[in-house]
Amino acid sequence: MAMISILMAATLYTAAQGSAVQLKVPNEPRTKSVQVMWKEKRVPAFRVDDVWTTLLGVDLDTKPGTHAAEALLTMDDGSVKRREIAITVAARKFPVTRLTVEPRFTQLSKTNLNRSSRESREVGAIYRRITTDLAPDEVFVVPIPGGTGRNFGERRVFNGQARAPHSGADLRAATGTPVHATNRGRVVLAKDLFFTGNTVIVDHGLGIYSLYAHLSRIDVKRGVVVKSNQIVGLAGATGRVTGPHLHWAIRMQGARVDPFSLVKAGG
């Protein structure tokens, strides 16, 4: 069993609810690998020059205050050194939006309820995985160049019924607008889903997943590795929508984060 030693004071970081944060751990002599423990998950770090770095997600419902993480440095003799990390989470206000959609999306038939539940379990299982054979190789980019979205985290009311917070950003896009991969990764889902329509999910490693929803066309297949900026499909209005647009979402170690915060945090 590896020996664990506790050294040094905690390194401090700050982040808002629903945002990405980049952690940097200075390299130490004889360090073989580094992992960061965050919300009971082990997230790999990768070395760039004399720094080990990784990206963590702070869920939009994370309680404001200071949360503990730690870096585990595995040395070349098998021993493990622990470096404490503290992330102070700041509160963020999210607006409430009322929308009208087709009744079949709020009053689900038994068939559609079973389908949506099955798809929710499938997507949830994807987000729980943290693959170790992938890592972002470039900075994260917006899938529609110049696109903006301000409705992440909105508390949504569909046809008078409250629903889960909006976990992505909606980018304005006419049907047929090319949608690009936000970074290099492996396609882990590419098919039609009840609520999100034609949907692509890409695994970027480190527990980071990007989702592109309501597409009019899917241009990639499950299992292929796409490059950063590669076209994964065309924007559209499939699924539960009020008009053509791209719903772009990011999950990081299961946390729902504003995708624009990941672009800002780096890669």
Write the SSE topology.
Blueprint: E1 4-6, E2 11-16, E3 19-26, E4 31-38, E5 41-44, E6 46-48, E7 51-58, E8 65-75, E9 80-90, E10 96-99, H1 110-127, E11 155-158, E12 161-162, E13 168-172, E14 178-180, E15 185-193, E16 197-203, E17 208-215, E18 217-218, E19 225-226, E20 231-234, E21 245-252, E22 255-257, H2 259-265
Parallel strand pairs: 1-9, 2-9, 10-11
Antiparallel strand pairs: 3-7, 4-5, 4-8, 6-7, 8-9, 11-12, 13-21, 14-20, 15-16, 15-19, 16-17, 17-21, 18-20, 21-22
Helical residue percent band: under 10%
Structural class comes to mainly beta
Proportion of β residues?
A: over 45%
Number of DSSP strand runs:
22
Could you characterize what this model shows?
The strands form 5 sheets. Strands 13, 15, 16, 17, 19, 21 and 22 form a 7-stranded antiparallel β-sheet that branches. It is built from 2 helices and 22 strands. The N terminus is likely disordered. Helices cover 9% and strands 46% of the residues. A hairpin with a 2-residue loop joins strand 21 and strand 22.
